[in-house]
Each structure stands twice: as structure tokens, then as C-alpha cells.
Write a structure and sequence with these properties.
35% of the residues lie in helices and 23% in strands. The chain has 177 residues and is α+β, with helices and mostly antiparallel strands. The chain has an eight-stranded mixed beta sheet. The protein binds zinc ion (ZN).
């Protein structure tokens, strides 16, 4: 019973609602796609993750784990489960911007690593594995931040000149770094 409830919450959580305005009309009629994939490069290491991670109504834990390892704290060589809603958002961004490959600048950061990063918030959602810094090839990061702000119930950070956009599933807020 507990597992059923947890699964339902994962499937029908804020992401699905938040993304409703962004998905193609066909998806609105047939529901959010039952097969989902992401294709990313983790720029600090150059590592790639390109695979499906959701099918038959459930997240593949081995896929989420592999994605999490790809986006790990490479400085400390530590990983933590990345929240799969972040993968759903990346999945939608592939469609939204018609880009096959999305760059991830930062995923999980251990508190120790986070404390060493200039300008990083002490309680950064990166330390909870609830945040990603991304760049979509040839797309202006500020435009991505604007779009995210309109659909994401979470945090959106703009970092002019730094080459990425931050998003997380923490409290609703936005800022310019
Ligand atoms: Zn960030």
C-alpha cells in the first residue's frame, strides 16, 4: 500500500501539473509519454548519459542511479539519488527546444564541495540532489530561465555570463546570480 501511494505521488506530483502548459497538444490528449529518455553531457567530466529512464508507468531505478552517478559531485567523487522529476524536466526541454543533447554543468554537490563554490547558497538544493545547472545548445540561458519560471514550481536561477541556467524543486522563487 505504501509503495502504491509513493508511486502515485511520483507519477502525479507537481512536475506533471507544472509541465502541463508546456507539453505538445498530442501529449495533452494521450497523457505524459509513457516512455521517457534524456541525452545529456556532464560538462565537468565529459561523461554522457543517453538512455530511457521511465517506461510502463515506473521510473527505472538503475537508470536514475546511472544518471545520478553521471551528475555526481565529481570533486568529492560522491553521488546521491537525483530526484527523477529533474529528469522529467530535462526530457520536456529536449522537446521544447528541439535539441537532442543538453549540457549539465552541475548536479549533486556534497555540502563540503558546495561550501567551496563561490556564490553558492549555503543550503543549495544541489546538496539535496534536487537541482541541476543546464545549458541548451544555441539557446539563450535567460530565455530558458524565463520559460522555466513560467512552468516550474521551484527555483529558477539566472547567471548572466556564466553559461547556464539553474533549476530546482525547492521552494518557489527566482533570482539572478
Ligand atoms: Zn545551480
Amino acid at each position: 500500500m505504501g509503495a502504491t501511494i509513493a508511486r502515485r505521488r511520483l507519477l502525479a506530483g507537481p512536475t506533471a501539473a507544472a509541465l502541463a502548459a508546456l507539453v505538445p497538444p498530442a501529449w495533452a490528449q494521450s497523457a505524459f509519454p509513457s516512455k521517457r529518455w534524456v541525452n545529456v553531457v556532464f560538462t565537468p567530466t565529459g561523461a554522457r548519459y543517453a538512455d530511457r529512464y521511465f517506461w510502463d508507468g515506473v521510473y527505472s531505478m538503475s537508470a536514475v542511479r546511472e544518471f545520478s552517478w553521471t551528475c555526481r559531485d565529481y570533486r568529492a567523487n560522491e553521488w546521491k539519488w537525483i530526484h527523477p522529476w529533474l529528469m522529467d524536466l530535462v526530457f520536456v526541454l529536449h522537446w521544447k527546444y528541439n535539441r537532442n543533447l543538453i549540457s549539465i554543468f552541475s548536479g549533486y554537490r556534497s555540502p563540503q564541495t558546495n561550501a567551496q563554490i563561490e556564490g553558492a547558497a549555503l543550503n543549495s538544493q544541489h546538496t539535496r540532489a534536487m537541482a541541476l545547472d543546464i545549458h541548451i545548445p544555441d539557446i539563450d540561458n535567460e530565455a530558458v530561465a524565463r520559460d522555466l519560471k513560467a512552468i516550474l514550481y521551484g527555483g529558477t536561477g539566472m547567471y548572466p555570463g556564466r553559461g547556464f541556467t539553474h533549476f530546482d524543486f525547492g521552494p518557489l522563487r527566482s533570482w539572478t546570480g
